[in-house]
Amino acid sequence: xxxxxxxxxxxxxxxxxxxxxxxxxxxxxxxxxxxxxxxxxxxxxxxxxxxxxxxxxxxxxxxxxxxxxxxxxxxxxxxxxxxxxxxxxxxxxxxxxxxxxxxxxxxxxxxxxxxxxxxxxxxxxxxxxxxxxxxxxxxxxxxxxxxxxxxxxxxxxxxxxxxxxxxxxxxxxxxxxxxxxxxxxxxxxxxxxxxxxxxxxxxxxxxxxxxxxxxxxxxxxxxxxxxxxxxxx
Length: 233
Hints:
By secondary structure, the chain is of the alpha/beta class. The chain is 35% helix and 24% strand.
């Protein structure tokens, strides 16, 4: 994993997997830091049940409210922070909770400017009016730079991967993929009738941006943003 390879040397302290889900990165973290306490944090009791046995400690907590009981040397968050709003408040608080010389390491999808994601917001606002404040969102790279660079040594980069979205019996593969991920909080903010209008409008435009192969599958570019910030007191 790109983010694991970018980690600097760490001071004393535990390793916190923030938004650990079912424990997808528990084994790599354990391999890198076998002597450290590994703490998994997630808001979902169902996910934590699946992660049982992979961490020394499991904590059920919302990312926006979590505070460590033991000072972490590393807070690692893989594909979780895109589900929560107000990164401007959350990220400085996380950095401040680190041990001196500790690192916050984050990976989030960064598709906001791609048609697959941008058209959900554009069409929602055209058809249904302004979206409510407080929806989860990811900042532009410059936003994270200006927020985090004053807090420590910052590394920030992006990588674009490609995945094949298989053909769907019902609807465009890009629509089905994004409505279950990025668009989920947008759709949840709308009425049922508004959701139907938005989905129909999205279906009308998205195929031109992501042409399907003969078998109906779509080659889908997926951009990921990574950053590490090491606290320097």
